[in-house]
Prior knowledge:
By secondary structure, this protein is an alpha/beta fold. It folds into two domains: 2-247, Aldolase class I (TIM Barrel); 292-362, Arc Repressor Mutant, subunit A, CATH 1.10.10. The chain has 15 helices and 17 strands. The strands form four sheets. It has a nine-stranded mixed sheet, with helices on both faces. A three-stranded antiparallel sheet has the order 12-13-14, with no helix packed on it. Strands 15-17-16 form a three-stranded antiparallel sheet. Strand 5, helix 3 and strand 6 (111-117) form a beta-alpha-beta unit. The longest helix has 17 residues, at 207-223. The N and C termini lie far apart (42 Å). Bound molecules: iron/sulfur cluster. Residues 13, 16-17, 20, 22, 24, 58-60, 115 line the site of iron/sulfur cluster.
Amino acid sequence: MKTLGLYIHIPFCNGKCPYCDFYSLKQTEESMDEYISYLNKKISSYTDYAADTVYFGGGTPSLLGTDRLISVLKNIHDSFGNIQRETTLEVNPESPNCLDFEKLKFYGVNRVSIGLQSANDSELKILGRKHTANDVRNTVKTVQSSGIENISLDLMIGISGQTAESLTRSIEFCADLNVYHISAYILKIEEGTVYFKNKDSLNLPDDDTVCDFYELMVDKLDSLGYGQYEISNFARDGFESQHNLKYWNCEEYLGLGASAHSFIDKKRFYYSRSIRDFYNNKIIPDGTGGDEEEYIAMVLRLSGGLQYGKFRNYFGYDLPRHYIYNAKKLNKTGLLYVDDIGIRLSPKGFLCSNSIITAILYNE
Ligand code: SF4
């Protein structure tokens, strides 16, 4: 039986953050009940796969409350077997008291991801977040006291008014709470968001400043014991996200829920950004995946990079020489390294990963 990663999308949020373009809707008790009933039916319809990682993402999965989450966890167990490696739940720092983490742990949750974004309340206000840094502190403590130790916090770089000092404070805040994993994303202004409409008045730091912040963050996190293992992800040894590594290693995953994406048997497919389409089981094909180009582009996001041995295991043949030849042309730039193990980007290289990957793939 094939073993894959299982992603569950929960498309409910208590309001819309002005920078966010994820699919999410305002929840009601009835709409959450209805969604969970369809989701559970869908989960139960799968009998051919096992899963070793599960990721509840959103939206705000913690809005569901303990009982609904447990009903989904039980169904997953019945259809996909015992989840051996990792079950992650994204949790909103506004509502930790609504969840019984001890119960959730009993039913398999062993990792919690919390959207901190910044430990400076003025920056949180600018981001339109309703929580404070203290709410996050309390949430982390609540989760830790339940016995779930593997906690990840999200940070954001490029917030209006952010400084090197305020970013450093946010990083130290995470380390002081002894979380094991940090994801740090550069703020992107996506079309269709409130930020996009107001982009000229946002007063965001310029690109050079954001690059400086990124490098500062990589160094600071490293000095605090968080090794970089992906462009935006840092972890204490052994606490890299097992589920997300599947995406970057082009391994298979099944996504269930409105707007969830899947990759199985070299095919990509997804549910549209519509709860009704999900209820009507409307699956949209998205072409093939897992070819040489996609694999190279994905693994170069990882600090371990493109490794010759792993490429051979994935494809059954050696990495074609022209990729190595293209990479070697950039060897002296400090943006990447080419050696006997493979090709990998430096932190500076991560900042312009798209153009380096294009150069390696197409000699452009
Ligand atoms: S950022 Fe998170 S909480 Fe805010 S609207 Fe998007 S998914 Fe919801």
